[in-house]
Amino acid sequence: MSGGASLGLRSSGSYGSLPQQQQLGGCQSLSPAPSASPPLAARKPAKMSLGGAGGGAGGPRVFARICKLAGRRQRMLLLLLVAVAVAFCFLFSSLVSKDEDASHGVETMLVFSDHVRSFVNPVWTSSGRPVAQRDSLTTSGLNTESHSRQKQVQDLMRRFPPAVVMDHHPCENFSLSPPPIDRKRTGPRPCPVCYLPVEQALTLRPAEPSASPILQSLNYMSKGILISEESNGGSLFGGYPSLEERDKSYNIKESMEVHCGFIRGKIPGLNTGFDIDEADRSEMQQCQKTVVASAIFGNYDVLQQPENISDFSKDTVCFFMFLDEETETAIKNSTTIDHTKRIGLWRIVVVRNLPYSDARRNGKVPKLLLHRLFPNVRYSIWIDGKLKLVRDPYQVLERFLWRKNVSFAISIHYRRFDVFEEAEANKAGGKYDNASIDYQIEFYKREGLTHYSSAKLPITSDVPEGCVIIREHIPITNLFTCLWFNEVDRFTSRDQLSFSTVRDKIRSQVNWTADMFLDCERRDFVVQSYHRELLEQRQATLKSRPPLWPPVVRVQPRKMLPDDGAKEPWKASASKKMSGKRTRDKKLISRRTRTKVNGGKEATQL
């Protein structure tokens, strides 16, 4: 090395080794030994060299002279101080360089995997910028639009949770316990559920979509002119599928084409029935990866706002609420819809040209055909309009899909497990026309429907509580909901009656089934309210009832005894008796007087 060599770079050996100090020209003995090697050409010293700005060999000469004049202990102390100073300067420079690098983008301070980045936005790269922005940086620069887009991405990156490496799942030792005892609530109640924080839940998301057994490509039929060829064959919106087409749709192949609603067009919502405005369809197309959806038709429910939603989910999850014009009018009377068509977290979509006259049947379109309305979404959570979501969507997905490695999850009914019992309960409750329910059950019996028993285990129930559906959009789950919708279109709108038939037919063909979790677990992440009609009836009943609190009894203040009475209580009691006697005498006299005035007849005053 030359005299201006830097101590900031570590060569072979330690910083304080003897050969290194000899190369630096320092004193390693009491008398300096002349060097036999030829002199080296001087070069510009480094920034952290001992020579500083003195240049060439001036620095080493001064350093050697100081070592010659100082004692051995002083030389060792001097070397120690120099080493500490160099280490401090090196540490300070590294911190400054990290701060300079981090100032160009917050993404350098975050550590998370590329598959989690792509989960939020599929065009993100490992650099933290969209591909279009990265290309524009290498060309002529950023224009105004791309610059604002980059700022939006960087703002979102500040909220992106960092990756968390876990050796074991925090909920692996969690045991499901029954709902806590509550004397005021004797019906179905929520039970404790173990959720992960949002940042940990995101890191456990699968990098690749779940495998779809056998079925790899699913297409949907569209027809221009439709003619109903049989009674009870569905609707114009569903395409009137024949029984032969119905049987064929359960023959699972690698590539299939099936009826799946929106039969009159290629683009769902564009002149197909269940029509949606172009602006709404465009925003639904832009929704990426995860959507939470609900619907209210016929002003049947009260709009519920989600709660306990993380800021990250508010930025990355789509919340869509489908309404008909009647419900929109009713909501506008009490709530303002802003210019972005939002009420709280919900993005409002008004549906026109509804395919059915029954509001409950119209609600089955977004419930079962979300994959058609949101073609770019990977995960969806459907909740009925009467429900309020009270958990973060990523926590729900991790708990009921990713942790179990399943692609479709729905809760079991809290009371009934058998389709035949469910049919009788629907008839008793007036949920649908009894003759239509009987026709559907008899049809399924001819196809082999039996009562639920332990022989169907590990299937735990044939009746779902269909108000919540959590699923991944892959071909096999899309086929399942298409065929489930076709059953609802052909028979009654009570989807609990047709669920097990569709599930078992697909399960007999491929190794796939719908996972069913407990109803008390569902009640932990959604809060159920009454339908609007029942809620108004309850409110009217409560107003008509008399108040439950007891009437107010006014207590007269107690008369205090005079001082002499307090001192001589027998006088007070005697005076009290005399006053009572005088009062009775006055009443008797007044009664006699009234009798004489009225001709001897006593008048009774009420």
From TrEMBL:
Biased composition (Polar residues): 135-145
UniProt entry keywords in alphabetical sequence: Membrane, Transmembrane, Transmembrane helix
Species lineage: Eukaryota, Viridiplantae, Streptophyta, Embryophyta, Tracheophyta
Entry keyword annotation includes Calcium: no
Segments of skewed composition (Basic residues): 578-595
Span list, region Disordered: 1-58, 126-149, 560-606
Composition bias, Basic and acidic residues: 560-570
Membrane-crossing residue ranges in chain numbering: 76-96
Protein name per UniProt: TOD1/MUCI70 glycosyltransferase-like domain-containing protein
Listed InterPro entries: TOD1_MUCI70, TOD1_MUCI70_glycTrfase_dom
Low complexity composition bias: residue spans: 7-42
Origin species: Paspalum notatum var. saurae
The TOD1/MUCI70 glycosyltransferase-like domain, residue ranges: 218-531
